[in-house]
Amino acid sequence: MNKKDLAELKKHFLPADDLLVVRRVFTTFIDSEKNRKCTSNRSFAEIPDEEMSVLYATLAKVLKGTLGKGLIEYEFPNEVYEEDQPQNLLWEMLEKGLDDEEQVEKFVAHITEKMVYTLPYALFVAQCTYTVFEKNKFGEKNKFDSRDFHFLVGGVCPVESRVDGLIYDESENNIVRKTTFDRIVADAPTDGFLFPTFTGRGADVNHVMYYTKKPKDPNVSVVEDVLGCHFTLSAQEEKETFRAVLDKAVGEELNLGVIASVNEKIADYAQTFKDDPEPPVVSDIFVRDVLLDSGVSQEKAEAAQEIYKEATDGNYFMASNLTDSRTTLSASGVTVSISGDATDKITTREIDGRRFLMISLDDPEVTVNGYAMKIQ
Question: What are the structural domain ranges in the chain?
Answer without folding.
Answer: 3-231, 236-321, 326-373
